User: What shape does this take?
Amino acid sequence: MSMIIAPAHYLLFGFFPTVIFSFLLPVIGVGLFTYIIARRIAPLVRANPDYRFNNIPERIKNLIVVWLGQIRQPRYMQAGVLHIIIFAGFLILSIRSISLVIIGLYDGFVFPGLGGSLGVVYNFIKDYAATAVFVACIIAAYRRGIKKPARYAVPEKYGHDHTAEAVFVLGIICTLMISESMFEASAVAYNYKSLGESHFLAPFSLAWVFSKTFRFASLEFLQGLHIFMYYVHDVTFFFFLCFLPMGKHFHVITSIFNVFFMRVKKGNIKPVKYGVSDEELDDLESFGVKKLEDFTWKQMLDFYSCADCGRCSDQCPANAAGRPLSPRFITIKARDLIFKNYPIKSGVIYKSDKLLVEDIYTEDEIWSCTTCGACEQECPLGIEYIDKMVDLRRGMVDEGMVPQSLQKPLKALEKRGNPYGKMEKKRADWALEKTFAETHTVKDLGEESADTLYFVDSITSYDDNIQEIARRTAIILEKAGVDFGILGKDEKDSGNEVIRFGEEMLYQDLKTQNTQAILESGVKQIVTADPHALNALKNDYTGLPPVKHISEIVAEKIKSGALTMKPCKDRDKVYVYHDPCYLGRHNSIYESPRQAMDAIAGLTRVELEKSRDRSFCCGGGGLMLFYEPEEETRMGVLRVNMAAEAGANVIVTACPFCLVNIQDAIKVAGKEGEMEALDFTQLIEEHLA
Assistant: This one.
């Protein structure tokens, strides 16, 4: 009796060596794969530059935490756990798959280091990994093919869904698991029947089950099955390798690179073009993204890396409100265009004279984005959307494609430095209100000096209903012993929304004027009660003193004892804190407002289901207050209903734009008298001891 014959030595029909197949399959597979990847890289080579080789330690950390650790997957628990099992199984079994290719040429090949006890441990883990992946794929196929979660659906206007492709790929993976397990099990069963050798397999694993079943088979059947399953695995392996770059499963290959090159700094907007300084912008012939090749190579890598999981759109408030925007399809439509313009079968590159917003996107689709960042926060593969939307808007603005409702505030910003078109000298009139001015004086840094600048920004300076935030902020700073002043007429709009609406040159002008005024004031730190101003000054500007939100100052002063809080005035009310997008997601300030609220004894506070980095945008940020989108339900109304479901009757926010929108939403939702909205500064000022 003899041991089973390996693929490297087997003679098909008694005379044809199967080792020829073992040689040809990897040569053809790798060659074809190399050609396909070369075609897929072609658009990236033609794309605009992108500077992604900085902050290497942080990028390595992202690779370990986001890609290898799959930290974002459990945010959708069931699908996330299934993906983690399949992903981990792939990593473990990749060693086995590669070794199998070599085994077809060299019988008995073992990866260096896996020949002894470590190899026994690896085989034990590998058998369970294959079993876990098989089971996970069956469950995943059931979810995609039968259960069909809503976030996987594809509206008719976006084309067909990808359920068939997803189930097909799951079938391929199952084939790999079964063929590998049967290949091993047939050898174990053969050698047991022939030589009486007992080879240990992980109990109840696929290989173990198959080996027990095969003990009743003939030696001839086991030999044939052994060879057949080897080549089933080999053919499937190389077919899968070449199939991956053909559709949404390209992310299996690109995800490691996309996560490594993902955003490492939040809140900022990419330059108009890398390598072009602000002073050289006037020399550019065209701004933003108008054609496919205007995207950067990282943005194109994003398109390739989309797994079509729908998490971005599921969390997108614009999509939830029924606006004509789904982040998922911003990516998929661009990927489909790349596949169309750079076909695999031909070396021809097809081009369209149409703008992207006329070809695959619509103007309303691009303007519907609030730049809240929910999509980016949710994506497990580090795909970015805000920079793409801004680049597309830059291109639209350059072509004169600006919504009618935004033209007036943009012209006012250009002329007066604020979207309301009001006189510069009236910017500090909030401090002259009679009752406030009788007991409080606010320094003008054009005439006096101070350690801290209170940057008020436009809405708080000019909106009659919001000016109270400025006065309450001043009172809090004064009570906390902060030496502060304002720029008054020298302050311009921070430009946070201007740059995000694509008006680059106007933003550059606002930034230059503000930077000069701030530096000339000689302040050592900046405080603002407006998260949008905070974000611009902290993340878009350069060379300024440290910038803090008023909630951070309050939390710090309460902790140090400089501020003390009185017990809650109305203990019957239930408060909930709404995280503003530009305070939370973009700047990771979550705890300071909550700590300050919790310092008020007797205050009952609940949490919204969508809170912190999953907070739901109010829809009113910046120039969005002037934009008139097409939508089914206001985002603010959806947010108010969430607060009501949480059992709250007082919504506290720390952003003037959120306050305006939520107050309005309470009226639209018919909840006046039942609910109220407060700014953080009002709650704190009313409870100062």
